[in-house]
Write a structure and sequence with these properties.
Layout (H helix, E strand, L loop, with lengths): L11 H13 L2 E2 H7 L6 H14 L2 E6 L2 E6 L3 H16 L4 H12 L5 H16 L3
Length: about 130
């Protein structure tokens, strides 16, 4: 099977379904439907899962009368793809601007450990000339 297109190509509803599958690891159409905001009909949820499977994002296994869907794309790959798209779209490709915006948004909520980790990663990037 060829590689699926980038996750940024997903519709809003497809992205919501992928988020559910990443969080749960696997789910039936009924389980996905129960977690979708402004849930569509059951048949629409099934159709969306079929579309995601046709696009190469999910696969299914039959367990009795039910199909159980799992993501084919790794959650880390999905996060990286979404972040790359966000940085390109909203920050003109500037990782520094994105990090600055996130720190300004989350600053007071970050733990000392998280701030230390960010500082170490920034220092490492500086040493490596990135």
């Amino acid at each position: 099977m060829p590689n699926p297109p980038p996750l940024s190509a997903l519709t809003r509803r497809e992205s919501q379904i992928m988020e559910i599958l990443f969080r749960r690891g696997q789910a039936t159409a009924a389980e996905v439907l129960a977690e979708l905001p402004d849930a569509p009909s059951y048949s629409t949820a099934r159709k969306l899962l079929e579309i995601l499977e046709e696009k190469g994002y999910v696969q299914h296994a039959q367990e009795g009368p039910r199909y159980v869907y799992t993501p084919v794309v790794a959650a880390d790959d999905a996060r990286n793809s979404a972040l790359e798209q966000m940085v390109r779209t909203f920050f003109h490709g500037s990782i520094g601007s994105a990090v600055t915006a996130l720190l300004e948004l989350q600053g007071p909520q970050l733990s000392d450990e998280e701030l230390d980790r960010i500082a170490k990663l920034a220092e490492q990037a500086k040493k490596e000339g990135r």
